[in-house]
Amino acid sequence: MENTQKLKDIVKDRYAKIATQEKFVNASSCCGATTPSNKVYNIMMDSYENLEGYNEDADLGLGCGLPTAFAQIKEGDTVIDLGSGAGNDCFVARHETGPTGKVIGVDFTEAMIKKARENAEKSGYNNVEFRQGDIDDMPVSDNLADVVVSNCVLNLVPDKPKVISEIMRVLKPGGHFSVSDIVLVGELPQELRQDAEMYAGCVAGAIQKEDYLGIIKETGFEEVAVQKTKPIMIPDDILLKYLDEKGIEELRNGDLGIYSITVFGRKPMDHKSEEKPKAFAEAVQVEASSCGPGCC
Length: 296
Description:
Layout: H1 4-18, H2 23-27, H3 67-70, E1 78-82, H4 88-97, E2 102-107, H5 110-123, E3 128-132, E4 145-151, H6 160-170, E5 171-185, H7 190-193, H8 196-200, H9 209-219, E6 222-231, H10 236-239, H11 245-253, E7 257-266, H12 278-290
Parallel strand pairs: 1-2, 1-4, 2-3, 4-5
Antiparallel strand pairs: 5-7, 6-7
């Protein structure tokens, strides 16, 4: 079982390389981190091309949903994007906030921050900024954001309860989030759960859908709802790196479901910062850790 810091180092290393890859490579793999499939199609991502504010240079093909399309962003809002990459969701959010709003992207990969800042400067965006840091310990003040968005990133964080608590901390009372992420229904084969590439590829780090939603509710969010669900099918030519043909057949015919979900939650107006019950936090951490490799 890898420790938390080693998992973070794996992800940071992979995503530094992903920052320089062509979009088609990222789109034909799992979150850009696994071996590309010879079936060149978007394994996880949805198309942004019909969204206002879309910036092709900032689209690395790494997402698994369109959280900004569901985030109910209003003019003048302050928006935080977790795991902002090259800035794609930030620029879509900026279109919604208008010139009176502000967008902050947080990413812990230096190469991604550099790329995002270059994209913002090329477009002359003065109300979008990018901060380097962990999303489970954000370089952001309390009660700052009206909206938090994230696209296929929370599953890359070993401590899921901590990052959900951070979302609660940085949102204003009454603020809300819309997050797209990968979740499971059923158990991944051990060969996939223990692989670092599949962890960085947003699969092995995913936890059970029921537990994911449970963390959000136990943290104190209200109006928790799944806004969109999309099944994810990993092509056989990627799975063959981990499983034989019999293993793939058993996977396909079993009870496992891998899904992209987009989830909404609202911070209560009267929320007071409280530490989660220790027993719950520890129980969820055990569940989250079990999905890592000795572990997008």
